């Protein structure tokens, strides 16, 4: 009877889950069909407008997959640390991703992401160029969809780069690819996670050293938490100015006339902006921490509470900057196709109509809301356990690594940085716990040795007594006692072996997750490229 009830419950949950999945699929399809219809009807009478409409469909699909996969890196640590609920994270990320795309997404973008192929190789022939961009969009979206299903956070930039490269090779041969640029992108597979991991680990260690390892954690927190939050503020404002506001910088300069006239902000100007905000934030946080200190426990959990609000701000700012920058992964090729259809030519830069920007912005927000939770859980809790200060360190690494890399001219991936930061705090935790583990292992080994020694002595004594002739009453009582002591010693040895084995096995970063994610990173560009080449030939075969 109980089994029947269990089966009924499972069936009910399955029906509920399939119903939700059907609604998600329906909403996604409705958005893509709406984009397809609008694009086709609004460009009626223009040659190749059917290609543009289909490309808009692919762009909408790509944007939703960016939302489902890439945005998890911005809010995953905050959710994993319990600073944000899943629902709260999705709302915040959706709003700020869309805001970043609309406000700072820019009016003009490079149509070929990162200049990885030479558009002159198309010889001014528009059709193959349109087919190549369509293939790039669809292949990148399909790869991201697959990676999301496999719960692997991958770089959307690398996905579209692979798509553009594969379609370019299929259209004009290997000579079309800028292999030097591709080498830099390959280098980012190593540079991004290592930089992110090291910086996140350094910040976490600094927090532990200055606050957590102190006897009076509350007093230490009053002194240092405002400093760490101020540093975060400086990093984010500098990062946001450099990466998120560069596309609307001329408009800002027109309003703030005291700024030097330039097309984009310099690092010095961005850093000064960041410093001014950091000073204000320091004073606010110092006052807030002093006020809250009396209500906090002098424990790690008590200190963690002080990082909750900064983490929420970090998730919002990361989402804004991501929306401003990575929306181009969805709408860059679409803008290129739109420009080619409208002008009948090929350009390395293209204006972005509002509807194209809307496809990217709304698509990212919708993809996040419908399919983002799966990757948010993976990033937030399935790689290593995160609390607020660990998640705070990951957010710091995300902003500071991009700043360092941009100044050194190093290619980096925001996905790889964030996940590398999570690896970093997890491996630091393993390193810091290693001494404790060694101490535990040493103690257990010594205990095991002593117990084995005692057991051997008891057995030898028992053997001697059992072989003794004419045993006294005291001898018989001793034999009984020895049997009891031998049983107890054997139980203690068994327990010591179990504890020793447990101590030796402690790992804070899940190795299976690390292997799966790294494998997905390595094959992203070639997988998207091969898929893109196949799609290009398919489109060419259908058209011709």
Structure description:
The protein has 544 residues and is mainly alpha-helical. It has a domain at 436-505. It has helices at 2-42, 49-69, 72-80, 86-104, 126-149, 156-172, 179-212, 217-244, 249-255, 267-292, 300-304, 308-343, 354-381, 388-408, 414-467, 473-505, 511-543, and strands spanning 108-110, 349-351. The chain has a two-stranded antiparallel sheet with strand order 1-2. α4 (86-104) packs antiparallel against α13 (354-381) and α15 runs antiparallel to α16. The longest helix is centred in the C-terminal third of the chain and has 54 residues, at 414-467. The chain is elongated. The N and C termini lie far apart (64 Å). The relative contact order is 0.17. The model has no long low-confidence stretch (mean pLDDT 83).
Uncertain ranges? none
Order of helices and strands: HHHHEHHHHHHHHEHHHHH
What gross morphology would you assign?
A: elongated
Euclidean distance between termini CA atoms: 64 Å
Taking all Cα atoms into account, the compactness measure Rg is: 30 Å
Arithmetic mean of pLDDT: 83
Give a topology summary.
Layout (H helix, E strand, L loop, with lengths): L1 H41 L6 H21 L2 H9 L5 H19 L3 E3 L15 H24 L6 H17 L6 H34 L4 H28 L4 H7 L11 H26 L7 H5 L3 H36 L5 E3 L2 H28 L6 H21 L5 H54 L5 H33 L5 H33 L1
Antiparallel strand pairs: 1-2
Helix pairs in contact: 1-2, 1-13, 2-5, 2-12, 2-13, 3-4, 3-13, 3-14, 4-12, 4-13, 5-6, 5-12, 5-17, 6-17, 7-8, 7-14, 7-15, 8-10, 8-12, 8-14, 12-13, 12-14, 14-15, 15-16
């Amino acid at each position: 009877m109980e089994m029947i009830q269990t089966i009924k419950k499972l069936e009910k949950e399955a029906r509920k889950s399939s119903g939700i999945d059907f609604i998600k699929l329906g909403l996604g399809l409705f958005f893509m069909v709406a984009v397809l219809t609008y694009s086709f009807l609004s460009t009626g009478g223009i040659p190749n407008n059917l290609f543009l409409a289909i490309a808009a469909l692919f762009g909408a699909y790509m944007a939703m997959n960016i939302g489902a996969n890439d945005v998890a890196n911005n809010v995953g640590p905050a959710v994993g640390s319990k600073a944000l609920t899943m629902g709260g994270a999705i709302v915040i990320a959706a709003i700020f991703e869309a805001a970043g795309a609309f406000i700072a997404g820019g009016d003009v973008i490079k149509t070929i992401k990162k200049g990885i192929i030479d558009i002159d190789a198309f010889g001014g022939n528009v059709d193959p160029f349109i087919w190549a961009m369509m293939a790039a969009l669809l292949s990148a979206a399909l790869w991201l969809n697959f990676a999301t299903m496999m719960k692997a956070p991958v770089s959307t930039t690398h996905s579209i780069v692979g798509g553009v490269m594969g379609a370019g090779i299929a259209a004009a041969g290997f000579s079309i690819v800028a292999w030097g640029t591709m080498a830099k992108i390959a280098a980012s597979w190593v540079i991004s996670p290592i930089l992110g991991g090291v910086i996140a680990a350094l910040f976490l260690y600094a927090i532990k050293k200055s606050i957590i390892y102190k006897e009076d954690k509350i007093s230490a927190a009053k002194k240092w938490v405002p400093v760490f939050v101020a540093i975060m503020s400086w990093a984010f404002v500098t990062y946001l100015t450099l990466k998120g506001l560069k596309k609307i910088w001329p408009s800002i300069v027109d309003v703030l006339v005291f700024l030097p006239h330039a097309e984009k902000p310099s690092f010095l100007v961005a850093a000064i902006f960041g410093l001014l905000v950091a000073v204000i934030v320091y004073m606010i946080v110092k006052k807030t921490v002093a006020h809250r200190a009396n209500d906090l426990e002098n424990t790690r959990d008590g200190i963690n509470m002080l990082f909750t609000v900064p983490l929420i701000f970090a998730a919002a700012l990361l989402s804004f900057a991501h929306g401003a920058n990575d929306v181009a992964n969805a709408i860059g090729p679409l803008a290129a196709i739109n420009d080619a259809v409208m002008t009948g030519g090929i350009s390395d830069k293209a204006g972005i109509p509002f509807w194209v920007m809307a496809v990217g912005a709304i698509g990212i927000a919708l993809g996040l809301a419908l399919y983002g939770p799966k990757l948010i859980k993976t990033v937030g809790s399935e790689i290593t356990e995160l609390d607020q200060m660990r998640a705070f360190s990951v957010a710091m690494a995300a902003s500071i690594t991009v700043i360092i890399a941009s100044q050194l001219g190093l290619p980096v991936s925001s996905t790889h940085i964030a996940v590398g930061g999570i690896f970093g705090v997890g491996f630091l935790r393993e390193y810091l716990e290693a001494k404790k583990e060694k101490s535990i292992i040493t103690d257990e080994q010594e205990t095991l040795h002593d117990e084995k020694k005692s057991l051997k002595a008891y057995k030898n004594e028992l053997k001697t007594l059992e072989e003794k002739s004419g045993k006294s009453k005291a001898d018989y009582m001793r034999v009984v006692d020895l049997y009891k002591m031998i049983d107890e010693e054997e139980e203690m040895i068994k327990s010591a072996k179990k504890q020793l084995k447990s101590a030796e096995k402690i790992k804070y970063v899940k190795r299976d997750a690390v292997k799966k994610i790294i494998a997905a990173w390595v094959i992203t560009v070639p997988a998207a490229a091969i898929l893109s080449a196949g799609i290009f030939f398919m489109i060419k075969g259908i058209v011709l």
